[in-house]
Amino acid sequence: MVINDLFLWIVETLNQYPSEFIAFSMIIYCALSIFLLHLAFGQVGLFVYFGMSLIVSNILFLKLVKFSFYSSPIPLGKIVIGSTMFCTSLLIEFYGKEVAKKAILIGVTTELVVHFLMLLAVGAQPYFDTDSSAYNAGHAQIKALFLPTFSIFISGIIAYVISQNVEIKTFLMIKKLTNSRFLWLRSGASMCIASLIDNAIFGILACIVFAPNPLSWSTTFFTYILGSYLARCMICIIFVPWMYLVFNVRINNFFSRNLVR
Predict the structure, then answer these.
(1) For every residue of 161-185, which 3-state class applies, written as one string?
(2) pLDDT exceeds 90 at position 162
(3) CA distance 35 to 48
(4) Which DSSP string do the residues of the chain spell out, in sequence order?
(5) Which residues are CB-contacts of 259 (< 8 A; sequence separation ≥ 6)?
(6) Tens of pLDDT along 219-252?
(7) Mean pLDDT value across residues 62-76
(8) Residue 119 to residue 117: CA distance in whole angstroms
(9) R_g (Cα) of the chain, nearest Å
(10) How far apart (Å, rounded) are the C-alpha atoms in residues 142 and 137?
């Protein structure tokens, strides 16, 4: 009970802060998680982050927040899915194109396994106990949380696979054209281009094509395409310095490359 009260206090405290603070905290947390997972486990750590981030981003698609710099609400899931493009850049630079494509496949496979597992769980007939109201509410909470994602997870997979492959090709093309110089350019440009493609495909498919109750084109564009893209461009800007940090830090000879220029 004490732990529950602590978590409730944390949530209530965070509710008092502006959405920009929460979003920035999430970006930093994602960046730190990627950095530490890569440092501790190499490419395997990034594979783990890929799978986790896809699941979390689909859930957070249901969480809309309002920012002061934009009139329409923006889904928080775009912050998490945007961080995977940072992972893609790391994988391409350290391990190559094929490993980056493998990470995309692992992420999609993880998402499929989890979603169908939750589909079976929701389909199980719940047991109701008059003495355990908390457990009685569990079925309704799980159903409300995961069933809506089944109408959008296909959209997420399609948009994710296409945009991630575009990022790989863009990153490698810029790297070749610049003779492996200007890390900030190939990293930032590839993430921004891929983010636009991801937002457009996902917004149209999830909000209109596959949606049980399709949204208007106006809402889809300003909330789930343009608004989310502006947020993801800000994420890309923040992640570029992190790219230099990851590539330049040497801890126990874990990173073997020379300093980037």
Answers:
(1) HHHHHHHHHHHHHHHHHCCCCCHHH
(2) yes
(3) 12
(4) -HHHHHHHHHHHHHTTS-HHHHHHHHHHHHHHHHHHHHHHHTHHHHHHHHHHHHHHHHHHTT-EE--TT-SS-EETHHHHHHHHHHHHHHHHHHH-HHHHHHHHHHHHHHHHHHHHHHHHHHHSPPP--TT-HHHHHHHHHHHHHHHHHHTTHHHHHHHHHHHHHHHHHHHHHHHHHTTT--HHHHHHHHHHHHHHHHHHHHHHIIIIIS-SSPPPHHHIIIIIIIHHHHHHHHHHHHHHHHHHHHHH--STT---SPPP-
(5) 247, 248
(6) 888 877 887 787 778 788 888 887 777 777 644 3
(7) 80
(8) 5
(9) 20
(10) 9
Token pair listed for 176: 């070749």
CB 249 within 8 A of CB 255: yes
Give the tokens for residue 174.
């810029």
Six token digits for residue 102: 């493998």
What is the rounded average pLDDT of the residues 38-56? 89
Contact 83, 235 (CB under 8 A): yes
Q: What average pLDDT does range 108-124 have in this prediction?
A: 87
